[in-house]
Amino acid sequence: MDIKRVAINAVNEVIEMTVVPMDYKGQVAKRINEKMPLATVKGFRKGAVPKDLVEKQYGKAIKTEEVNKVVELALSRYIQSERLNLLGTPLPKENENFSWDDEELVFEYEIGLVPEFEIDLDAKNNIVKYVISADNELIDEQITRIQKQFGKAIPQEVVAADHDVTGTFTNLTKGINTPASFSLSIFKDKKTADKFIGKKVGDVVTINTKGLFEDDHQLMDLLKVGHDDVHGLDIDVDFTIETINATEMAELNQELFDRLFGAGNVASLEELKAKIKEDAESQFAQQADQKLLSDVTDFLIENTKFELPSEFLKKWLQTVGEKNLTPEEAEIEYARSEKGLRFQLIEGKALAQSNIQITFEDLKTFTAKAIRQQMAQFGQTNPTDEEVQGIVARVLANQEEVKKLSDQVVAEKMLDLFKEKANAKTKEVSYQEFIKASYGE
What is the mean pLDDT of residues 427-436? Predict the structure, then answer.
């Protein structure tokens, strides 16, 4: 068999395979001989059919099967031997002049290649690494929430200024049907809060969303609308009151501290504030890391230029799923996935350039850490190593979990690499300032 590659451009090639009779005739003859004792042709006893009739009846189908086996095996071995780094899988190229009656058969396969490129992690950029601090206002708000959460709810018949209300926001046009619970102090304008005063369970209060809060992003939490919808949102929403409660605030005493953080871990208001600040800033650091990862990702995608075999990939997308796509559907799917594909290639290059590898020990360590964090959330703060490793072994026996955790380990290593290499400018901000920066304000 003769195999060669024909370059179309840097990322597109055709593999041309010429199959000659000696590649398949021996196996075809063997299959014909095996078929003869079983062949049935009208006018002949079973097993007594002349060979030429057996060949006429079964020869073409057997030839087709055997040649396809030869081609598939040779193609796979050729890709391995040439160390071709492919995107997608080879696509057979149509040939109008092809005939299975020919003894010498030519097959062509289109392939898309991973492009050659370099990335510059040290490139000049305007990326910011945020350090989010928990200010006194945020800490005091959290203490108030704790006192309310662990306080005593006292049902009321009529809404007063210091009461909490629970109910459902609705707006049919926007598809809003969102349960919510809040105190009247959340609104920017006292006139809005005053609309609730004196209302009873079952009453409906209509408010307008424009300028409802100091920060429009609060609408995302209250009404569960997307970020793109909240800026300047100017609609009326109805709130149906379901419960009204006054709250007898929980005392800030040792019983509450122990309930929150375990016996003896917090012993005063000052220690409570310090603990809240520590926990909040730990959570904020994770959010800041995710923004850094996202910002560096976007920067690298925008500034790392390379060509993809886009037309090949669109054709490949038509055939790769459970259901074949139309060319139009493949075009949409390619547009949706191109950014992710580009970053996948950039990520692999970054890890290779920095000689970073993912080992099974990395995976075990990451999984054990995640398990300990989950157990702590359910009050198991000191599990034994044996307990944790037993859970690790069960988790890593699941291949789907291994894939998911491997992706998380890669993301963690990429984040560490970006922190080291990306030359991001550090900026200390409050949480509200970080939210505005994250959403483009």
Answer: 90
Asked whether 193 and 163 are in contact (CB, 8 A), the reply is no
> Which residue from 135, 130, 137, 127 is spatially nearest to 287, judged by alpha carbons?
130
Tokens of 284: 């904020």
From residue 376, give the alpha-carbon distance in Å to each of 276, 383, 389.
17, 9, 16
Q: How far apart are CA 23 and CA 3, in angstroms?
A: 13
Cβ contact 340:87 at 8 Å: no
The model scores a pTM over 0.85: no
In this predicted structure, the answer to whether residue 311 has a pLDDT above a threshold of 60 is yes
Pair type for strands 86-92 and 12-19: unpaired
Q: How far apart are CA 5 and CA 23, in angstroms?
A: 20
Residues facing residue 207 across a β-bridge: 237
In angstroms, rounded to a whole number, what is the distance separating the alpha carbons of residues 290 and 417?
Answer: 13
In the numeric block, the tokens 């291994």 are attached to 402
* pLDDT tens-digit map of 265-289: 899 999 999 999 999 999 999 999 9
Number of helical H runs and strand E runs in the chain? 14, 11
Between CA 310 and CA 330 the distance in angstroms is 11
pLDDT grade for 381, boundaries at 50, 70 and 90: low
Reference 298, options 353, 334, 341, 339; nearest CA is 339
Mean pLDDT calculated for residue range 120-126: 86
Farthest CA pair distance, the chain: 104
88: left (phi over 0), alpha (psi -120 to 50) or beta: left
The residue with tokens 């609730």 is 196
Question: What is the residue whose two structure tokens read 């005593």?
Answer: 152
Q: Average pLDDT, stretch 321-329?
A: 91
Q: What is the mean pLDDT of the chain?
A: 90
Using CA atoms of 48, 51, 56, 57 in order, give the dihedral in degrees to the nearest 10: 40
* Residues ≥6 apart with Cβ < 8 Å to 404: none
